[in-house]
Structures are given as C-alpha cells and as structure tokens.
Amino acid sequence: MCEKIQETASWLRERMTTSPKTAIVLGTGLGQLASEITDTYEFPYQEIPNFPVSTVEGHAGKLIFGRLGGKDIMAMEGRFHFYEGYSMKEVTFPIRVMHELGIETLFVSNASGGMNPDFSIGDLMVITDHINFFPEHPLNGPNFPAGPRFPDMHEAYNSALISLADDIAAEKNIRLQHGVYVGVQGPTFETPAEYRMYRLMGGDAVGMSTVPEVIVACHCGIKVFGISIITDLGGFDVPAEVSHEDVQRAANAAQPKMTEIMREMIRRA
Questions:
Q1: Are strands 62-68 and 38-44 parallel, antiparallel or unpaired?
Q2: In 31-175, where do the E strands start and end?
Q3: pTM
Q4: Where in the numbering of this chain does the Nucleoside phosphorylase domain appear (predicted)?
C-alpha cells in the first residue's frame, strides 16, 4: 500500500501547478462548493493511478485543484464508502495521498441524519467528536510510517478551527449546531430504534462516512474540521421515511451556508 500511495502522489505531483496545504472532502449533494473554486484543473478518479472510483449518485468523482478563499486547495468531489465494497485502506487511500502531497488541514463534510431534538432539517452541525461504529478499523494491520501505532484521539476535530467557524457564523448570522457524529456502515438508513440507541450513546447525528477519513488524517498529523448538514431526522415519536433523493435535496438547500463558512475559514486559517 505504501508503494501505491507514493506512486499516486508522484503521478499527481508531476501534474500539479499549485502547492495546496488545505484539502476538502465533499460528501453527498455537497458539490456546490466546488463551483466556488477558481483557477481550477482536475483529474477524474478513473484517470488517477490506484484511485478507487465513486459509485454513489451525487458524487462527481474527481479531484479538483485550484484556489478558494485566496488559498491553494485541493478538493475531492465525491468520496468512497465502506458499503460500496471497498476496504478501509481503499476508503482512506486519498487521505494518505494528501499527506504525501503536503496537506496540513482537512475539511470534511457530509449529509447526516439528526437525532438531537433541538435540530431541524437544513441545520449545519459542527462535528466536535465522533463515535466509530464501523466494523473494520482503518488502522488495522501494519502501522504506516506516517504516524504512531496508537494515535491519540482526544481532539480529533481541531478546537481552534471550531472556534473560527463559530466566530464566522456569528458574524454572518448563520446558525451553527455542535454535536457528536456517529459513523456507521450503511447502506440502510437507520431504524427508529437505532436512532434512539445512538442518541442514548451520546450521538447527535449519524452517517455513513467521515470517521475513517478523520482517523487516518489524525494518524498523519493533519488538522481536521468537520461539518454535517442535517438532511433528515429520526428517533422521535413519529417515524419518518427518508430516501437518498430527500437527502440530496436537503443538502443542496443548505449548501450556500456551508460554502460561506468554509470559504471564509480557509481564507483566515
């Protein structure tokens, strides 16, 4: 795997005309931020050596380089999921490549189901911590030289970046929630009982991504900021049906607020 990571990083480095220190992972229905990136050049995943290919509707499947908030950045428009049949090493492969390319800060976004009764559909939730319910751990196996065998996770989501997001949201009068993200395998949406269980365990929102990428980023020493768009609600008295299309529509509606915050964070960070 180390050889593949270096091969992919070398292939990209030979073609890169910028030097980004910041990367963004855009989840389901969150591709609008990509349109804000200027001076772009991009690579479809299928053209990049050793890269998996995104199979989920709403994930464009390309690596974008350019400028956002006055900074060089790289962005994944579409991620990879464990439920697609990829191993955790494949799901987190792009994060390893980012580290090889010199990325120091990672912004991750996702669409998630809310079970906090104070949440509403369309809310933005800054991730303050997570609970890992994936059946496979991304650091299983031989330790990568990028980090320690037993990485510390007491501050997986960088507190200074969270404070910066809060300041920007206050300035722009954007409502931000804070909460714990529960990462699960999927691909089924949660049952009402599962929503209630995750809530009792301390979760505020649940989704099928993000946690593996954040773990590997922390292992590599990359600072992380995470944000969820609450696209559906569950675990309350009246069960609500949800579809992938519903999730995409809710994510699309909330994108402008998320884009404004992340653009300004990158500018100031």
A1: antiparallel
A2: 38-44, 62-68, 71-77, 105-114, 124-132
A3: 0.92
A4: 22-267
